[in-house]
Every structure is written in C-alpha cells, then in structure tokens.
Amino acid sequence: QVQLVESGGGLVQPGGSLRLSCVASGYGLGIYTMDWFRQAPGREREFVARINWSSESTSYRDSVRGRFTISRDNAKNTLYLQMNDLKPEDTAVYYCSANLGAYWGQGTQVTVSS
Q: Which in 30, 34, 42, 80 has the greatest CB count within 10 A?
C-alpha cells in the first residue's frame, strides 16, 4: 500500500511561483509512473503532468507546458511540480497520483489571486 502526501500549496499572486511536493510512504515510488492532477471548484479533475519511473519521459497538458515542470527523486520517494508564471486559472486543488491512478494523495490547495 502506498500513501501519498502533497504539500507546498498556498496563495500566490499572478506571475508567481510555487513548488509542490508529494512524498510517498509505505512503498517506494521508483517503479511507478507518477502524475499530477488538479480540480477546480465545479470542474472535473484534470490531468496536469506525468513522469515515467526513470524521468526519461514527461508530458504536460497544453495550458501548463513551458510553465510547469514535473520531476522526481526516487531516492527520496518524492515527486515535484515546479509551477512558474502562475495564472488565476491555475487555481485548484492539486493531487499527485501513482501507478496510473491506483494511489492518490489528499491534495493541496493552490490559489492564484491578486
């Protein structure tokens, strides 16, 4: 069983940056594809970014490509999401997921507002 805990969310002004972290316990992350998703109020959960187990392959939704960077440190069982040039439309609860949706964290709130 894998437990995932996100952190790093908060309130930031448009154009600002945040780095989200997702720490795994109970089992190593090293073999899993990892994802970030987000869910804004009244909207469905949507894919944000993905990274494979070796960090050789990443993918992003179009609206965040070039602004967000997904990375991982398997030795620390930690997944990251560096978010730059944040926009109000990035406001959402951000979730990490392991093994193609088999495991989910509880989410961390990101609010982009002036």
A: 34
